[in-house]
Write a structure and sequence with these properties.
alpha/beta, 6-stranded mixed β-sheet
Length: 325
């Protein structure tokens, strides 16, 4: 059995977190990535649990590995223990002179610069938050932060409907736009004509935006002959403004490029509409009215910035959504 010490208790909690992630994803690699650790370290945690209890937790003779009877029993208890510990941690962090004393936020990297000052001011002046921690990233990063309870709230492009215990406040829906080098003078009335003259520069398939664009082009039966992939909008727009190709991006993904005065032409997409929705996602009933206020602030700031940088083309690509709160 595990020794009953503070250190072994901490190790046991970490091991259970790894075990639960593997059980949920069905893959050691995916679980390790979600928890920000190496596959080897995750495997060691599972092996330590199996040695400690003298059981086999996964049937490794099949792919993906399945839980054994002992694994199913541990998974049921691990979920309860991890949820209880997460609730305790949240409640302890919120103990103080104000209802929300410590706040951890995940924000899409492309809009982090635009929203951060207003969000910090809202948290501190409007809700008396003492400490704010901000994480810029992509929706996949936000999923990890929310699942592991390392973030209280995320401003993201994925509502995570597969996750229980969350509340969602829509901000806006935005259309993808055709983005060309400023000096491009070829046809713009079809994507097929554009891709015949320029390579496609887009988000990598490892990102949700990249996969969304790939699926859309497949539906249109378009297969660009040359593709350059990147995992940050600033990298994509930097290539476009230097004449290396064209891209499909939403107004919020273009903000930083225009703020940095990158020379680009932005036009409505000459094909079937492609959209994404920005949403504030937080753990249910933990932050009171704060998530609804975050959605309202984000909506206002984004519309202002898109209008200032992209004018009517950018504004026309936005559809404002009421959070209903």
């Amino acid at each position: 059995m595990l020794k009953s010490s503070a250190q072994s208790g901490s190790n046991l909690l970490k091991a259970m977190e790894v075990f639960a992630a593997v059980a949920e994803t069905g893959q050691m690699t995916a679980a390790a990535r979600m928890l920000g650790m190496t596959q080897s370290a995750a495997s060691q945690q599972i092996a330590a649990l199996e040695r400690s209890y003298g059981v086999t937790l996964f049937d490794r003779s099949v792919r993906p590995a399945r839980l054994t009877q002992a694994g199913t029993l541990l998974h049921r208890h691990a979920e309860r223990i991890l949820n209880d510990f997460g609730d305790l941690e949240t409640e302890m962090r919120h103990q103080g002179p104000t209802p929300i004393s410590v706040l951890r936020l995940g924000i899409l990297a492309s809009i982090a610069t635009t929203l951060t000052p207003g969000l910090v001011a809202l948290a501190k002046k409007g809700f008396g938050v003492r400490d704010v921690t901000l994480h810029a990233g992509q929706s996949g990063d936000h999923e990890n932060l929310l699942r592991t309870k390392k973030a209280d709230l995320a401003i993201t492009s994925n509502p995570f409907y597969d996750m229980d215990g969350l509340e969602r406040h829509p901000i806006l829906q935005e259309n993808f736009l055709l983005v060309l080098p400023e000096k491009y003078r070829g046809p713009t009335d079809s994507l097929n004509a554009v891709q015949g003259r320029l390579p496609l520069i887009r988000f990598a398939d490892s990102t949700s935006v990249g996969r969304q664009i790939t699926q859309h082009l497949r539906r249109l039966r378009l297969k660009p002959q040359q593709v350059i992939q990147a995992d940050r909008s600033s990298m994509v727009t930097a290539c476009v403004c230097n004449g290396m190709g064209f891209t499909l991006l939403t107004p919020s993904l273009l903000i930083d490029g225009f703020v940095e005065r990158m020379p680009m032409r932005v036009l409505p997409l000459p094909a079937a509409r492609l959209t994404r929705t920005l949403t504030v996602v937080s753990r249910e009933r933990e932050l009171g009215r704060f998530p609804a206020h975050v959605a309202e602030l984000s909506r206002t700031k984004l519309v202002e910035q898109v209008g200032a940088q992209m004018g009517d083309v950018g504004r026309a690509a936005l559809t404002l959504l009421d959070s209903g709160n």
